[in-house]
Amino acid sequence: MYKRIFDLTPVLSLMVVMLIVMSAGCAPPATPVTTEAPAPTPVTTEAPAPTPVPTEAPSPTPVPTEAPSPTPVSEEPFEVVFGLATDINTLNPIHETYTTDLVISEQINEPLVVLGPDGQMKPWLATSWELVDPTTWRFKLREGVEFTNGEPFNAEVVKFVYDELMNPDNAAAGQPYFTSVVEVKVVDDYTVEFVTDGPNPVLLVRLQALYMMPPEYTKEVGHEEFDKHPIGTGAFKFVEWEKGDHVTLEANPDWWNGAPKVDRITFRTIPEASARVASLLSGECDIVEVIPFDSIPQIEEAESKSIITRLGAITYVGLDTLHGGPLADRRVRQALNYAIDAEGIIEHILSGYGQVVPAALWPISPGWDPDLPVYNDKEKAKQLLAEAGYPDGFEFDFQFASTIQALVQIKEVAEAIQSELAQVGVTANLIEMESGALFDAYAESKLQAYFFPWRSNPEAATHIRTLIHSQTRGYYYQNSEGDKLVDAYMSEMDPEKRYEIGKELNAFLHEDCPWIFMYFQQETLGVSDRVKWDMNTATYHAQYGLQLSPVE
After folding, report:
1. What is the C-alpha to C-alpha distance for residues 509 and 200, in angstroms, rounded to an integer?
2. Angle between helical axes of 410-422 and 330-339 (0-180°, round to 10)
3. pLDDT at 457
4. How many CB atoms neighbour CB 151 within 10 A?
5. Which residues neighbour 66 within 8 Å (Cβ) at sequence distance 6 or greater?
6. 550 cis-preceded (ω within 30 degrees of 0)
7. Residue 120's pLDDT is what?
8. Around Cβ 320, how many Cβ atoms within 10 Å?
9. Residue 16 near residue 67, CB atoms below 8 Å
10. What single DSSP character describes residue 243?
């Protein structure tokens, strides 16, 4: 690890002394007074005066002009250490859906557009775009951009990345985001077109997940090796990844957007919340994420430390509705929702840093209805269980990871859910898993119930298609009526009409209960005052270059 400040004064002082000694050694010796010379007083013009020193010899004071002026303090490269709550899974962009992976990968690999702090899409590797017809989007690309291995960025790169993402042989985790794109056309070196299977109002948002990769390097090393040594056009270059411990990046001085003001970033994995807080307070880390709410006062009272907040995650308990048993019955799923007091959990466990979300849309998503009723009625829960044939309740497994993305105090929340369900006769067997294992089991449809967050793209509600539609993930919930509403919602170009469809969709999901609806959590981070971070508070994503700089 780099030392952040290194005092060179002793070294420079030694250099000065050595220069003086060397200079004195090189000067001709003083000429002794000979008998033939006139008396030493007055000194004759022929004899060199002992004072001053002859002009041939450099004066020991001041230091010779050839020597550089000493600098009191010299700084080594400025490094920032970022403490993460969970380890990363991959650095290959086509395989990334996990948000912790993305916050690192986005420093290396970049998309065409990004979400700005104002919630609007901004140019990035694309400089402009236009809707040519209802199903064709044309993008002008930024010229003069290169990958850090020297490969040029152009339209062929965009097509290559799309083709790699959609190639079934690659089993790309990001593939569901682009099922509506049927073709990417190269118009010229710096113009590319995306053709969709119908009107697509959220394509720009989707394109945040299409990260550019150098074709020649990728083809040469393959995707498995790319995961270990990624190359991109971004603000930082990959240095090393020690799984379970840290990932280190160094600045790309030739970044098209200007050299970063931070020379090196190390992302450290620190799963234990108390250890993350301690690392911030001790100065070991400059930024740490997922601060437990009960630790906020301690950080706010500490010298040179502060708390910042940003858009967090919607949380829910996913339910397996597809493999029979009680959870396949809508009345049972409604009963589980009625059994949970989400507002009480927010107040007593999250210290008020949250908002109840009684359906699948976020509060900032098109179609959010603030008047949608909140579930919380244990007597109603018991009534519905009896109607469904479970007057004495039933039992199911409930998996969770104590550290997953930016959620805090997950175990306490899971235990509270377990306690609430027990009050209506339902037994939830808590099973704690490592986050990576939980994601694997989720993708393999092995879970009955699971506690999950969703953090990205709330402004366009693209999570609805990803999580709800039967043609995308569809691991645990499929409904043809829901599919039709999702399709209409994701294809309506008129904002007002889309809002109304979203409202109808959200009401349908509120009634059908694919999940136990929980809450929207605000995320808190601790930051050292030695670092200035112009953070994009609108989203966990779009932190390109991290916008970090030393405090002057």
Report:
1. 22
2. 110
3. 59
4. 17
5. none
6. no
7. 79
8. 20
9. yes
10. T
Work out the number of other CB atoms within 10 angstroms of the CB of residue 206. 25
Q: Annotate 397-446 with DSSP letters as a single string.
A: EEEE-SS-TT--SHHHHHHHHHHHHHTTT-EEEEEE--HHHHHHHHHTT-
- DSSP annotation of 6 reads B
For the ranges 212-221, 275-284, 519-528, the lowest mean pLDDT is seen at 519-528
d(CA 247, CA 88): 9
Taking the alpha carbons of 185, 191, 193, 194 in that order, is the dihedral positive or negative? positive
Tokens of 229: 């040594």
Distance, in Å, from the CA atom of 82 to the CA atom of 495, rounded to the nearest integer, reads: 39
User: Cα separations (Å) of 259 from 76, 271, 478?
Assistant: 17, 32, 48
Rounded to two decimals, the pTM is 0.70
> Using an 8 Å Cβ cutoff, are 211 and 161 in contact?
yes
Cα-Cα end-to-end distance for the chain: 22
Q: What is the mean pLDDT of residues 32-38?
A: 35
H-only helix segments in 354-402: 378-387
Look up tokens 């990932």; give the residue.
Answer: 247
Answer yes or no: are the C-beta atoms of 508 and 482 closer than 8 Å. yes
Helices (H) and strands (E) in the chain, counts: 15, 19
Rounded to whole angstroms, the Cα distance separating 418 from 516 reads 12
Whether cis (ω within 30° of 0) applies to the bond prior to 373 is no
Q: Determine how β-strand 395-400 pairs with β-strand 449-454.
A: parallel
Q: What are the pLDDT digits (tens) for 470-490?
A: 988 878 999 999 999 999 998
CB 420 within 8 A of CB 348: no
Residue 436's closest CA among 173, 177, 83, 169? 173
